[in-house]
Specification:
Layout (H helix, E strand, L loop, with lengths): L29 H4 L2 E7 L2 E5 L2 E3 L3 H5 L15 E9 L5 E8 L6 E8 L6 E6 L4 E5 L2 E8 L4 E7 L6 E10 L3 E7 L5 E5 L7 E9 L6 E3 L9 E4 L11 E7 L8 E3 L3 E4 L5 E11 L4 E10 L4 E7 L3 E2 L4 E10 L3 E2 L2 E5 L5 E6 L4 E3 L4 E3 L3 E2 L4 E9 L13 E4 L1 E6 L4 E4 L1 E2 L2 E4 L5 H6 L18 H12 L14 H13 L18 E8 L6 E2 L8 E10 L3 E9 L5 E6 L4 E3 L4 E8 L4 E9 L7 E4 L1 E6 L4 E3 L3 E2 L2 E4 L5 H6 L1 E2 L4 E2 L9 H12 L14 H13 L10
Parallel strand pairs: 3-4, 4-12, 22-35, 23-36, 37-48, 38-49
Antiparallel strand pairs: 1-2, 1-14, 4-5, 5-10, 6-9, 6-11, 7-10, 8-9, 11-14, 12-13, 15-16, 16-19, 17-18, 17-20, 20-21, 22-24, 24-31, 25-30, 26-29, 26-33, 27-31, 28-29, 32-36, 33-34, 37-39, 39-44, 40-43, 40-46, 41-44, 42-43, 45-49, 46-47, 50-51
């Protein structure tokens, strides 16, 4: 059975102690670059590792005394495995060190195969353990006391080998790690993923790639883009660099990965940052390099808000910049760069002088730490024939910077920086900027849709009117549902609506119930009221629903008349309903409407179709479930005709229910005695089995639509 590391105790890792003496003499830099890499593989895991290198033998480096190693690398509850090269003799050795916690003894067994001829067990820690070393096989069995270590050194591995180690950790070990030298002189720890799977160690004969990078500026400000360039990295032995990975916060996790050597990154706060680059060549070998850069302390922040994510040619929108002075500043200046021809009109300068032509502001006074300022200005987009944009839609970008004379610094304006210029606006954007006073769109308003704006937009939809500056003609149901959801959840129009999880079912169920005067969803147009029926749409929310649209699609010429729609707005021209409310999980809604079939409707079945629409746009539940057809008939079955026979007039009466009464049975018996035709059946005469069936229905009192029609 495989034992993963998570199944064993995982005490807090102890930091490596880099001892003086032997360890200080390790040459993990340029000498390691010249050595071929060793490829370590365990299951799907693989890593290229480089030997630690120093003058002197591996036995001397192990520094065995008092029944344990003294390398300075020992780590409690960890088993370490690494290669060591004597830089004087070039001899390569495999070093194994097991260590346990205070109070915990330990035990382990390594079964090794593939040992090259001439290899030898140069150090046994300690001699009371069991060692069987007969290349190409070996079996090493260790037991060590609490707060002690154990291990071995295998020497004379040569230049070519392919070792396999089958581990058995009995107790005292929760991590199995490889150690590898980095080209920059540091050492990295590579945790192995499993404590009981075999580990293969083989020489590749190839040199690890060299990772190298530069960055600019050399002393960036917070939020300022820093450009990193790894073009100086090299691959060897005919390989090429295929991947560049970057760790920007020194946590050992590579946040960015690309096949391009250049990348930009910004830091939110000041201080030292250790950045590590890992390159991978086409042979799968990896090399790392780390550098430290200093990010200056933040002096002032400037954050930009734009009132709309989109605008049309000739429109005006608003920009707000909030300044927070974190360190006393003198001569603070702001500059904003919009495309040529765009006019800037100052609305609020908050004590700053504004130079319109250059789009610059300057504060002519000393600003103490903690000062907050707000700059507001309007941007006028040029008309379409003056826009320096080739095609629409296109994105316009603003950039800005904040500068100070004393102390001297320059920081970029952060926050929103783009506006899409298009010939028309999305319905949600137009709705958020709808001015209630005159019904026009004012892009200087904010990006949230108010309840009053939603009410006005629903009125436009019901009256088949266009929302000003919106892309479509008359406002349709799908974008309106999005407007409703944004208003109910207070989602700004520049933020995407949350998408449902891929495995989530629909949050709402809509079922249609057809109620015709006759059973079996039949209509009988030969009498009064025979062309009219009712429909119920039953809505059930399984999860909270923020805005729901319903549309019924009736056959041509059929007329729909609303009966009841609590909580919903109705658009009669399109047979659509909108719920501008939250339907909480477990709640129900019911809509009722009446349908009249035209006089020229032919006999036969007709289908009713409908859809339910949710935001974001495109999430459509189709079709509405439940009943979906009615049948127009001129010849009734005998049970239907008898159950709706008015015995006083002898005519079909649609106001009667679907049960057969005794007076109707008596009339049926008269039809049977006289061989008379049953009214409404197109000349059908009763036979004995049918009469018996009618009597059974009358005695049982069951409706005819719950019995199988003969």
């Amino acid at each position: 059975m495989n034992i993963s590391k998570s199944q064993l105790a995982r005490p807090p890792a102890l930091p490596f102690t880099l001892a003086c003496g032997l360890l200080a003499g390790l040459l993990w830099g340029s000498l390691a670059l010249a050595a071929p890499a060793v490829l370590a593989q365990q299951g799907s895991f693989s890593a290229a590792i480089q030997p630690l290198e120093a003058p002197g033998s591996a036995v001397n480096f192990y520094n065995y005394a008092n029944f344990q190693a003294h390398t300075g690398l020992e780590q409690a509850d960890h088993s370490l495995l690494f290669f060591y090269r004597d830089s004087l003799s070039g001899q390569l050795a495999l070093v194994i060190i097991h260590s346990s916690q205070d109070g915990d003894p330990g035990g382990a067994r390594f079964s090794i195969s593939g040992l090259p001829p001439g290899s030898n067990l140069a150090l046994k820690d300690d001699r009371n353990d069991s060692y069987r070393f007969t290349p190409p096989q070996a079996e090493l069995l260790w037991f060590w006391d609490a707060a002690h270590s154990d291990g071995a050194v295998i020497n004379n591995l040569g230049k070519r080998f392919n070792l396999t180690i089958q581990p058995v950790f009995k107790q005292g070990i929760s991590e199995w790690d490889l150690l590898s030298a980095r080209p920059d002189g540091s050492m990295r720890t590579i945790p192995l993923p499993n404590l009981d799977q075999p580990l293969t160690l083989s020489t590749t004969g190839q040199q690890m790639p060299l990772a190298s990078f530069t960055f600019s500026p050399s002393s960036p400000q917070p939020f300022m883009p820093v450009h990193f360039d790894a073009s100086g990295s090299q691959a060897f032995s005919g390989s090429r660099i295929v991947r560049y990975q970057w760790d920007f916060n020194g946590d050992g996790i590579y946040e960015e990965s690309s096949d391009k050597p250049q990348i930009s990154h910004s830091f939110a706060t000041g201080g030292s940052r250790r950045v590590t680059l890992q390159v991978t060549d086409s042979s799968g070998l990896q090399g790392q390099s780390s550098r430290t850069l200093e990010v200056s302390s933040l002096r002032t922040t400037a954050t930009r808000r734009i009132s709309t994510p989109a605008a049309v040619p000739g429109s005006t929108f608003r920009v707000t910049i909030e300044l927070t002075v974190l360190a006393p500043s003198n001569g603070l200046g702001l500059e904003e760069q919009w495309p040529p021809g765009w006019k800037i009109v100052a609305v609020r300068s908050d004590g700053a002088a504004f130079k319109e032509r250059l789009r610059q502001w300057v504060f002519p006074s000393f600003l103490p730490a903690g000062t907050s300022k707000e700059i507001i200005y309007d941007v006028e987009v040029p008309p379409a024939d003056q826009l320096q944009l080739r095609t629409l839609p296109a994105v316009a970008t603003v950039s800005g910077s904040l500068t100070s004379v004393a102390p001297r610094y320059r920081v970029p304006v952060m926050g929103e920086s783009q506006v899409e210029i298009s010939s028309c606006l999305a319905a949600s954007v137009a709705a958020a900027h709808l001015r209630l006073s005159d019904g026009q769109v004012d892009l200087r308003l904010d990006k949230l849709i108010s309840a009053e704006q939603l009410k006005r937009v629903i009125g436009l939809w019901q009256n088949n009117e266009q929302l000003p500056l919106s892309c479509a003609g008359a406002l349709s149901l799908n974008p309106l549902v999005e407007v409703v959801r944004r208003q109910l959840q207070a989602i700004p129009v520049d933020r995407p609506l949350p998408l449902p999880a891929a495995d989530q079912t629909s949050p709402v169920q809509v079922k249609r119930v057809i109620l015709t005067p006759l059973p079996f969803h039949q209509l009988y147009p030969l009498v009064e009221g025979g062309r009219t029926f009712r429909v119920e749409l039953d809505v059930k929310a399984d999860r909270d629903v923020y805005g729901l649209g319903l549309r019924e699609e009736l056959p041509a010429g059929w007329q729909l008349q609303l009966v009841a729609a609590p909580g919903a707005a109705f658009k009669p021209s399109q047979d659509e309903w909108l719920f501008p409310e939250v339907i909480a999980a477990g709640q129900f809604r019911t809509l009722v409407y009446q349908v009249t079939v035209p006089a020229d409707q032919p006999v036969g079945s007709s289908l009713l179709r409908g859809i339910a629409t949710l935001a974001p746009q495109g999430v459509v539940l189709n079709p509405i479930g439940g009943d979906n057809q009615v049948e127009l008939v001129t010849c009734l079955s005998v049970p239907v005709a008898i159950s709706h026979l008015n015995t006083k007039t002898g005519q079909i009466d649609l106001t009667l229910d679907n049960t057969i009464q005794m007076d109707q049975v008596q009339a049926a018996m008269n039809f049977w005695f006289d061989d008379a035709q049953v009214p409404g059946t197109c000349g059908t005469q009763l036979d004995l089995p049918t009469l018996q069936h009618l009597i059974d229905l009358a005695v049982s009192g069951e409706p005819i639509d719950q019995q199988k029609s003969p």
